[in-house]
C-alpha cells in the first residue's frame, strides 16, 4: 500500500492547502468532500484487515471506503448520460482488473506489484476514455477495481482453489489510487491541450481580422473559448 498512501498523502496536502480548488470546482464537487474521501481512504488503509475465520479477509481502505466514495461521486454525476458512461466505464475497468489479475496470479510480491501497476494505469486510462468527465472517471475507477476484485476472488477461491477470499488486498488499494490519479491527470492534460489549441485558433483569427470587424471578432472569441 506504500505507493497508494504516498500518492494519497500528496493529494490530501494539495487539497488541504487549496492547490486543487480549480479541479474540484470544475468537477462540481465540494473541495472539502474530496479531502474527506482522501482522508477516509488513508485511515481505512492503515486499519488492520478484518478477518472472519480462516477463509475471509477484508481491507477497509481497499474495499469499503472506495465503494462509499463511488456511490457519493455517482450522486454528483446525476441521472444523465454521464451516469450511463460511468456504468460502462466501471464495467470496462472491472474487465481490465479481472483479465490482469487472472493472468498474473498473486503468488509472488513481483506479480502483485506488476498487476497493481497494470490495473492502475490501464484502468485509469480506460476510465478516462469512456467516462469523459472528472467525477465519472474517479467513480468508475473506484467501482470498477472493487467489482473486478470481487470477481477475481471468486475465480481464485472457487476456480483455481487454494486462495483466501480477500477483498481490498493484494494491491487493490494501490490500483485504485494510481487509477484515480492517472485518469485525472490524463483528463486535465487533454483539457489543457484543447484550451491551448483553442487559444491558438483565436489568436490566428485575430491576426486575420480587419480593424473594422472588431465587434464580430468579440462574438467569435466568446463562442470559441466557452
What does this structure look like?
Residues 213-226 have low confidence and may be disordered. This protein is globular. It is built from 9 helices and 3 strands. A 3-stranded mixed β-sheet has the order 1-2-3. With 226 residues, the protein is mainly alpha-helical. α1 (2-16) crosses α8 and α5 packs antiparallel against α6 (109-131).
Number of strands: 3
Work out the radius of gyration.
Answer: 21 Å
Q: If you average the pLDDT, what whole number results? A: 84
| Beta-strand content | under 5%
Low-confidence stretches: 213-226
Spatial shape = globular
The helix content is over 70%
Brief characterization of the structure:
The protein has helices at residues 2-16, 21-27, 31-46, 60-77, 81-103, 109-131, 134-160, 172-208, 214-225, and strands at residues 50-52, 56-58, 165-167. The protein is mostly helical and 226 residues long.
Amino acid at each position: 500500500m506504500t505507493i497508494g498512501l504516498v500518492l494519497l498523502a500528496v493529494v490530501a496536502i494539495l487539497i488541504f492547502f487549496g492547490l486543487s480548488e480549480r479541479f474540484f470546482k470544475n468537477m462540481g464537487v465540494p473541495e472539502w468532500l474530496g479531502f474527506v474521501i482522501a482522508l477516509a481512504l488513508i485511515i481505512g488503509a492503515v486499519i488492520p484487515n478484518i478477518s472472519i475465520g480462516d477463509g475471509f479477509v477484508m481491507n477497509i481502505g481497499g474495499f469499503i471506503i472506495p465503494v462509499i466514495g463511488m456511490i457519493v461521486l455517482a450522486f454528483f454525476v446525476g441521472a444523465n448520460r454521464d451516469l450511463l458512461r460511468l456504468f460502462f466505464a466501471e464495467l470496462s475497468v472491472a474487465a481490465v482488473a479481472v483479465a490482469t489479475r487472472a493472468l498474473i496470479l498473486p503468488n509472488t510480491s513481483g506479480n502483485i506489484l506488476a498487476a497493481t501497476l497494470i490495473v492502475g494505469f490501464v484502468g485509469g486510462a480506460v476510465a478516462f476514455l469512456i467516462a469523459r468527465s472528472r467525477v465519472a472517471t474517479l467513480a468508475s475507477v473506484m467501482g470498477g477495481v472493487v467489482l473486478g476484485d470481487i470477481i477475481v476472488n471468486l475465480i481464485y477461491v472457487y476456480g483455481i482453489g487454494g486462495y483466501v477470499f480477500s477483498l481490498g488486498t493484494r494491491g487493490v488499494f494501490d490500483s485504485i489510487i494510481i487509477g484515480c490519479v492517472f485518469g485525472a491527470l490524463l483528463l486535465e492534460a487533454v483539457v489543457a491541450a484543447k484550451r491551448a489549441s483553442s487559444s491558438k485558433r483565436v489568436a490566428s483569427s485575430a491576426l486575420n481580422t480587419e480593424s473594422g470587424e472588431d465587434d464580430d471578432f468579440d462574438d467569435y472569441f466568446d463562442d470559441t473559448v466557452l
